[in-house]
Predict the 3D structure of the following.
Amino acid sequence: MQVGFAFSKLADRLNSVSDLSDDDVELLAAMPGTVKHFGTHHHVLRRGDDTSHCCLLLQGYSCWRDDEGSGGQIVSIQVPGDVPDLSTIHGSRITCNLVTLGPAVVIFVPHAFFREISEQSPALLRSLLKLMLIDTSMLRNWVVNLGSRDALTRVAHLLCEIAMRLRAVGLNKDFQMPLPFTQSDLAAACGISAVHANRTIQELRRSGLLQWQAKTITIADWNGLVRLAEFSPEYLGLRHQFTDEFRLEPSPPQFHARNPVGVSSP
Amino acid sequence: MQVGFAFSKLADRLNSVSDLSDDDVELLAAMPGTVKHFGTHHHVLRRGDDTSHCCLLLQGYSCWRDDEGSGGQIVSIQVPGDVPDLSTIHGSRITCNLVTLGPAVVIFVPHAFFREISEQSPALLRSLLKLMLIDTSMLRNWVVNLGSRDALTRVAHLLCEIAMRLRAVGLNKDFQMPLPFTQSDLAAACGISAVHANRTIQELRRSGLLQWQAKTITIADWNGLVRLAEFSPEYLGLRHQFTDEFRLEPSPPQFHARNPVGVSSP
DNA sequence: CGATCTGTTGACTGTTATCAACTCCGGTGG
DNA sequence: CCACCGGAGTTGATAACAGTCAACAGATCG
């Protein structure tokens, strides 16, 4: 990952929620920052930190994790292009730990840069605000998930969400994506025990919905997974071109799926 | 409730998170709006609405409720002084239903008012931003709650939070507060069944932690409840004067509290 | 090549949901 | 005034779900 292209990750993300003009992309291209590589389960930010930078995730996954007596509950997960601490632009202390899930690459971008581009382009300001609103929306959705669905459905929902978000920033082209999560990570995100997470994944595998090996997940039956999870992507605030494209996939993904699962004809 | 004093509810709320200057209060006093009374379980806003007003809750409780197939999961709860849809100032569609819990009084305030006072007072802008950040923080905390605590602890935590938030806006002086929630409401908020909510409340009563009758809750043992719930109020973003005051209460609460509640002596 | 982390399995326990019945209460209409 | 009704709270029995403990296999990494 070259520093020079880091801005394009942010551009992809902004473009997934609103139309980005060429001028705006040009503004983004001036993004300064310091790139840093992290191993798995490393802290990017710690509760109480008070920096003058935002983290833009370039590669891999990260999460906000509450480590205060809650058994390490994962509160939200970020994919490349996300800026986990975007809301600290206007100054406020970090209240959770930002931890990598698998190896990750992050670029630290000065708050000032975001403030500047917000002043120079009302459209960018609106897009950044929208990213923050979407964060809240995803959080609300996750409350619904934890509060009203069982383990199997929660896991399925999380995987649907991640797949869709990756897709929106140009990754996960063929229902196959790297997912270096530990089963314990998954458990921490879904509020279940690691043992139960394991059994839940096995059930998903057994039902032929997905494969998950060598830190790579392959969704074998997207429609089935979506149906099981009762997943509807509106809350992600993505432009229709992204959700539509994904929803319409009948589901003829990987290597030996002879008879396409899903809608039959018309 | 007179329209003329509606602004003071917002002032109380803002004052609970940051110091409010006299000038700022004066700006707030010009707040226009339309007051509306609601019965219990009535819709204030519906998913998909797109208004040019914010709701300021003056009396009673409201909640964001997801009614799409999730069995009516309650995502967050508001107390008087809260502005549930503050984040729509910059325009964005409502994605949940805003429902009253018990009778409630709401004032609809034009977006424009919030934008104006934000321009005229940087301090007010910061306070309003802080309110939004706190909303997110509460949401994160609720994810932790649902994901990592059992029914008893969840209910206890919710009650602690509500008590503290009421306190911060000048209500709930003596550990006694109106709580017109249905047990089913409580269940929907905590992600448990109504039957189990009932049993959980009974256990809280049996342990002598609280009483709950005639739509009024009396916390009999604040310290005990806090300990059970593992409640720590930092995430509410309240100024220390409010949390300190409340935390130090030894626990001699309710109706016949002869000796003034508060700090005794060093 | 041993240490450690991750995934897997079985047996058991504990928590919570579900179903069904019944009470209590306030309101409403006969 | 009383009969009736619906909503809310309560209870017990049962079943589904998920947590815990313990052991072990396989991978990974110094």
Summary: The beta strands of chain A are 34-38, 43-45, 53-66, 73-78, 97-110, 176-178, 210-213, 216-219.
